Amino acid sequence: MKIYTFTAILLLSLSLVGCKNDPAPKAAAKAEPKAEPKAAPKGAPKGAPKGAPKGAPKAAPTVAPTVAPETTTEINYEDPEALNNWIDTILAGVSYVAKKLGRNALPIPDFYLPITPPLLGLTIGGTMFKTSLSGFDTLHRLGSGTLESDASTMTAYISFVVGLADTGLNGTLGVSFLNLGVNISGTLGHVNANVVIRALVRSTGEAYATLNFLSVTDVGGLSLTITGLGPVLNPMAESIGHLIFLAARCPILNAVEKALNETITLMLNDKKLLGGKVAELLG
Protein backbone atom coordinates (compact mmCIF):
# COMPACT_ATOMS: atom_id res chain seq x y z
CA MET A 1 0.00 0.00 0.00
CA LYS A 2 1.50 3.30 -1.05
CA ILE A 3 1.65 6.08 1.55
CA TYR A 4 1.37 9.69 0.48
CA THR A 5 2.17 12.46 2.97
CA PHE A 6 0.76 15.90 2.32
CA THR A 7 1.71 18.93 4.41
CA ALA A 8 -0.01 22.30 4.36
CA ILE A 9 0.71 25.25 6.63
CA LEU A 10 -2.18 27.67 6.18
CA LEU A 11 -3.90 30.31 8.27
CA LEU A 12 -7.66 30.17 7.87
CA SER A 13 -8.72 33.11 10.02
CA LEU A 14 -10.28 34.82 6.99
CA SER A 15 -11.82 31.57 5.74
CA LEU A 16 -13.78 31.03 8.96
CA VAL A 17 -16.42 33.48 7.79
CA GLY A 18 -19.68 31.61 7.36
CA CYS A 19 -18.76 28.82 9.79
CA LYS A 20 -20.75 30.29 12.68
CA ASN A 21 -24.13 28.79 13.50
CA ASP A 22 -25.11 31.36 16.10
CA PRO A 23 -28.18 33.46 15.23
CA ALA A 24 -27.77 37.18 14.92
CA PRO A 25 -28.57 39.21 18.06
CA LYS A 26 -32.18 40.34 18.32
CA ALA A 27 -32.96 43.97 17.73
CA ALA A 28 -33.42 46.15 20.79
CA ALA A 29 -36.98 46.85 21.91
CA LYS A 30 -38.48 50.13 20.73
CA ALA A 31 -38.92 51.37 24.27
CA GLU A 32 -35.17 51.27 24.90
CA PRO A 33 -33.34 54.59 24.60
CA LYS A 34 -31.38 55.15 21.42
CA ALA A 35 -28.44 56.87 23.08
CA GLU A 36 -25.21 54.90 23.06
CA PRO A 37 -23.36 54.54 26.39
CA LYS A 38 -20.09 56.43 26.71
CA ALA A 39 -17.83 53.44 27.22
CA ALA A 40 -17.98 49.69 27.05
CA PRO A 41 -16.31 46.95 29.09
CA LYS A 42 -13.12 45.48 27.70
CA GLY A 43 -14.87 42.31 26.68
CA ALA A 44 -17.38 44.13 24.49
CA PRO A 45 -17.30 43.33 20.76
CA LYS A 46 -16.41 45.74 17.96
CA GLY A 47 -19.24 48.01 17.15
CA ALA A 48 -19.58 48.91 20.82
CA PRO A 49 -19.00 52.58 21.78
CA LYS A 50 -15.58 54.16 21.37
CA GLY A 51 -14.48 53.11 24.83
CA ALA A 52 -13.99 49.50 23.69
CA PRO A 53 -10.30 48.44 23.45
CA LYS A 54 -8.54 47.43 20.25
CA GLY A 55 -8.29 43.77 21.20
CA ALA A 56 -12.00 43.26 21.93
CA PRO A 57 -13.65 40.28 20.15
CA LYS A 58 -15.51 41.17 16.95
CA ALA A 59 -18.66 39.12 17.39
CA ALA A 60 -21.48 40.09 19.75
CA PRO A 61 -21.55 38.26 23.11
CA THR A 62 -24.52 36.06 23.83
CA VAL A 63 -24.98 37.80 27.20
CA ALA A 64 -24.84 41.58 27.06
CA PRO A 65 -22.69 43.23 29.76
CA THR A 66 -24.79 44.86 32.48
CA VAL A 67 -22.14 47.07 34.06
CA ALA A 68 -23.07 50.76 34.00
CA PRO A 69 -20.56 52.10 31.43
CA GLU A 70 -20.17 55.53 33.05
CA THR A 71 -18.93 53.94 36.29
CA THR A 72 -16.65 51.35 34.69
CA THR A 73 -12.96 52.04 35.11
CA GLU A 74 -9.95 49.97 34.18
CA ILE A 75 -7.91 48.76 37.11
CA ASN A 76 -4.19 49.26 36.81
CA TYR A 77 -3.37 45.73 37.90
CA GLU A 78 0.00 46.05 39.66
CA ASP A 79 0.56 42.31 39.51
CA PRO A 80 -0.58 40.97 36.10
CA GLU A 81 0.87 37.61 37.09
CA ALA A 82 -1.91 37.26 39.67
CA LEU A 83 -4.57 37.72 36.98
CA ASN A 84 -2.85 35.26 34.66
CA ASN A 85 -2.62 32.73 37.49
CA TRP A 86 -6.38 33.15 38.02
CA ILE A 87 -7.00 32.46 34.33
CA ASP A 88 -4.65 29.48 34.35
CA THR A 89 -6.54 28.01 37.32
CA ILE A 90 -9.74 28.15 35.27
CA LEU A 91 -8.10 26.59 32.21
CA ALA A 92 -6.51 23.79 34.25
CA GLY A 93 -9.98 22.99 35.58
CA VAL A 94 -11.44 23.05 32.06
CA SER A 95 -8.89 20.47 30.88
CA TYR A 96 -9.65 18.30 33.92
CA VAL A 97 -13.41 18.52 33.34
CA ALA A 98 -12.95 17.74 29.63
CA LYS A 99 -11.06 14.55 30.49
CA LYS A 100 -13.68 13.49 33.02
CA LEU A 101 -16.43 13.98 30.44
CA GLY A 102 -14.49 12.12 27.76
CA ARG A 103 -14.12 15.23 25.63
CA ASN A 104 -10.38 15.01 25.11
CA ALA A 105 -11.19 13.55 21.68
CA LEU A 106 -13.90 15.70 20.13
CA PRO A 107 -16.12 13.98 17.55
CA ILE A 108 -16.38 15.94 14.30
CA PRO A 109 -19.65 15.55 12.34
CA ASP A 110 -19.34 13.75 8.99
CA PHE A 111 -18.72 16.07 6.06
CA TYR A 112 -18.65 15.73 2.27
CA LEU A 113 -15.97 16.90 -0.17
CA PRO A 114 -16.17 16.84 -3.99
CA ILE A 115 -13.03 15.22 -5.41
CA THR A 116 -13.62 15.61 -9.15
CA PRO A 117 -15.88 17.89 -11.22
CA PRO A 118 -18.84 16.23 -12.99
CA LEU A 119 -17.57 13.98 -15.79
CA LEU A 120 -20.13 12.31 -18.08
CA GLY A 121 -22.72 13.07 -15.44
CA LEU A 122 -20.60 11.42 -12.75
CA THR A 123 -18.95 13.15 -9.78
CA ILE A 124 -16.44 11.38 -7.56
CA GLY A 125 -16.80 12.64 -4.02
CA GLY A 126 -15.82 11.60 -0.55
CA THR A 127 -17.35 11.62 2.91
CA MET A 128 -15.17 12.00 5.99
CA PHE A 129 -16.57 9.92 8.85
CA LYS A 130 -15.41 8.70 12.26
CA THR A 131 -13.45 11.95 12.44
CA SER A 132 -12.15 13.20 15.77
CA LEU A 133 -9.93 15.98 17.08
CA SER A 134 -7.76 14.96 20.03
CA GLY A 135 -5.62 17.05 22.36
CA PHE A 136 -8.28 19.13 24.12
CA ASP A 137 -6.06 18.90 27.20
CA THR A 138 -3.52 21.18 25.48
CA LEU A 139 -5.82 24.16 26.23
CA HIS A 140 -3.65 27.04 27.42
CA ARG A 141 -3.54 30.82 27.72
CA LEU A 142 -1.90 32.86 24.95
CA GLY A 143 -0.35 36.12 26.09
CA SER A 144 -1.51 38.06 29.12
CA GLY A 145 -5.13 38.54 30.17
CA THR A 146 -6.78 41.91 30.83
CA LEU A 147 -9.14 42.96 33.59
CA GLU A 148 -11.75 45.69 33.77
CA SER A 149 -13.69 46.12 36.98
CA ASP A 150 -16.54 48.24 38.33
CA ALA A 151 -16.15 48.62 42.09
CA SER A 152 -19.68 50.01 42.51
CA THR A 153 -21.26 46.81 41.21
CA MET A 154 -18.44 44.44 42.23
CA THR A 155 -18.27 43.17 38.66
CA ALA A 156 -15.21 42.34 36.57
CA TYR A 157 -14.65 41.34 32.96
CA ILE A 158 -11.61 39.16 32.33
CA SER A 159 -10.56 38.93 28.67
CA PHE A 160 -7.96 36.52 27.32
CA VAL A 161 -7.03 34.31 24.37
CA VAL A 162 -6.80 30.53 24.60
CA GLY A 163 -5.29 28.01 22.22
CA LEU A 164 -5.08 24.32 21.45
CA ALA A 165 -1.68 23.25 20.14
CA ASP A 166 -0.69 20.33 17.91
CA THR A 167 -4.05 18.61 18.23
CA GLY A 168 -4.52 15.32 16.41
CA LEU A 169 -6.98 14.92 13.54
CA ASN A 170 -8.05 11.41 12.54
CA GLY A 171 -10.75 10.07 10.26
CA THR A 172 -11.75 7.78 7.42
CA LEU A 173 -12.53 8.92 3.88
CA GLY A 174 -15.15 6.98 1.95
CA VAL A 175 -14.95 7.59 -1.82
CA SER A 176 -17.98 7.14 -4.07
CA PHE A 177 -17.75 4.43 -6.76
CA LEU A 178 -14.39 3.22 -5.39
CA ASN A 179 -14.00 0.49 -2.79
CA LEU A 180 -11.11 2.10 -0.92
CA GLY A 181 -10.13 2.25 2.73
CA VAL A 182 -8.60 5.72 2.90
CA ASN A 183 -7.30 6.71 6.33
CA ILE A 184 -6.52 10.30 7.28
CA SER A 185 -4.31 11.33 10.18
CA GLY A 186 -2.51 14.53 11.01
CA THR A 187 -2.07 17.45 13.36
CA LEU A 188 -3.46 20.97 13.55
CA GLY A 189 -0.82 23.52 14.51
CA HIS A 190 -3.23 25.75 16.41
CA VAL A 191 -6.85 26.53 17.20
CA ASN A 192 -7.26 29.91 18.94
CA ALA A 193 -10.27 31.52 20.62
CA ASN A 194 -11.18 34.79 22.36
CA VAL A 195 -12.80 34.41 25.79
CA VAL A 196 -14.47 36.88 28.16
CA ILE A 197 -15.51 35.83 31.67
CA ARG A 198 -17.80 37.97 33.83
CA ALA A 199 -17.11 37.72 37.56
CA LEU A 200 -19.50 39.16 40.15
CA VAL A 201 -19.89 39.39 43.91
CA ARG A 202 -23.52 39.85 44.98
CA SER A 203 -24.55 42.05 47.92
CA THR A 204 -25.14 38.83 49.84
CA GLY A 205 -21.45 38.04 49.50
CA GLU A 206 -22.03 35.20 47.02
CA ALA A 207 -19.34 35.17 44.33
CA TYR A 208 -19.75 33.60 40.92
CA ALA A 209 -18.50 33.81 37.34
CA THR A 210 -20.15 33.24 33.97
CA LEU A 211 -18.93 32.83 30.41
CA ASN A 212 -19.79 36.12 28.72
CA PHE A 213 -18.25 35.55 25.29
CA LEU A 214 -16.34 32.89 23.36
CA SER A 215 -15.37 32.79 19.70
CA VAL A 216 -12.88 30.64 17.79
CA THR A 217 -10.87 33.06 15.66
CA ASP A 218 -8.14 31.04 13.95
CA VAL A 219 -7.56 27.47 12.75
CA GLY A 220 -4.34 26.68 10.93
CA GLY A 221 -1.13 24.74 10.43
CA LEU A 222 -2.26 21.37 9.10
CA SER A 223 -0.05 18.35 8.46
CA LEU A 224 -1.82 15.36 6.90
CA THR A 225 -0.90 11.76 6.17
CA ILE A 226 -3.22 10.05 3.67
CA THR A 227 -3.01 6.29 3.12
CA GLY A 228 -4.96 3.91 0.90
CA LEU A 229 -5.79 6.21 -2.01
CA GLY A 230 -4.83 3.61 -4.58
CA PRO A 231 -3.42 4.18 -8.09
CA VAL A 232 -6.45 6.14 -9.34
CA LEU A 233 -6.41 8.86 -6.66
CA ASN A 234 -2.73 8.93 -5.66
CA PRO A 235 -1.92 11.62 -8.28
CA MET A 236 -4.67 13.76 -6.70
CA ALA A 237 -3.39 13.40 -3.13
CA GLU A 238 -2.33 17.04 -2.77
CA SER A 239 -5.68 18.32 -4.05
CA ILE A 240 -7.53 15.93 -1.74
CA GLY A 241 -5.46 17.20 1.20
CA HIS A 242 -6.47 20.80 0.44
CA LEU A 243 -10.12 19.77 0.05
CA ILE A 244 -10.08 18.01 3.42
CA PHE A 245 -8.57 21.06 5.11
CA LEU A 246 -11.11 23.45 3.60
CA ALA A 247 -14.07 21.15 4.22
CA ALA A 248 -13.01 20.39 7.80
CA ARG A 249 -12.48 23.94 9.03
CA CYS A 250 -16.14 24.71 9.84
CA PRO A 251 -16.92 21.35 11.51
CA ILE A 252 -13.73 21.71 13.58
CA LEU A 253 -14.52 25.30 14.53
CA ASN A 254 -18.08 24.49 15.59
CA ALA A 255 -17.03 21.37 17.54
CA VAL A 256 -14.32 23.27 19.43
CA GLU A 257 -16.59 26.23 20.19
CA LYS A 258 -19.33 23.93 21.48
CA ALA A 259 -16.93 21.93 23.65
CA LEU A 260 -15.26 25.05 25.06
CA ASN A 261 -18.62 26.68 25.81
CA GLU A 262 -19.98 23.62 27.58
CA THR A 263 -16.81 22.77 29.48
CA ILE A 264 -15.98 26.31 30.63
CA THR A 265 -19.60 26.79 31.73
CA LEU A 266 -19.48 23.56 33.75
CA MET A 267 -16.21 24.69 35.28
CA LEU A 268 -17.57 28.11 36.24
CA ASN A 269 -20.57 26.48 37.91
CA ASP A 270 -18.21 24.93 40.47
CA LYS A 271 -18.93 27.46 43.24
CA LYS A 272 -16.72 25.63 45.71
CA LEU A 273 -13.70 26.30 43.52
CA LEU A 274 -14.57 29.74 42.21
CA GLY A 275 -16.23 31.47 45.17
CA GLY A 276 -12.98 32.43 46.83
CA LYS A 277 -11.25 33.03 43.51
CA VAL A 278 -13.81 35.62 42.38
CA ALA A 279 -13.69 37.45 45.71
CA GLU A 280 -9.88 37.40 45.53
CA LEU A 281 -9.96 38.79 42.00
CA LEU A 282 -12.21 41.70 42.96
CA GLY A 283 -10.29 42.44 46.13
TrEMBL record:
InterPro entries: Mite_allergen_group-7 (IPR020234). The keyword Mitochondrion does not apply. Keywords: Signal. It comes from the Eukaryota. Residues 25-67 are annotated as: Disordered. The keyword Magnesium does not apply. Residues 29-39 have a biased composition (Basic and acidic residues). Residues 1-19 form the signal peptide. Residues 40-67 have a biased composition (Low complexity). This is Uncharacterized protein. The lineage of its organism: Eukaryota, Metazoa, Ecdysozoa, Arthropoda, Hexapoda.
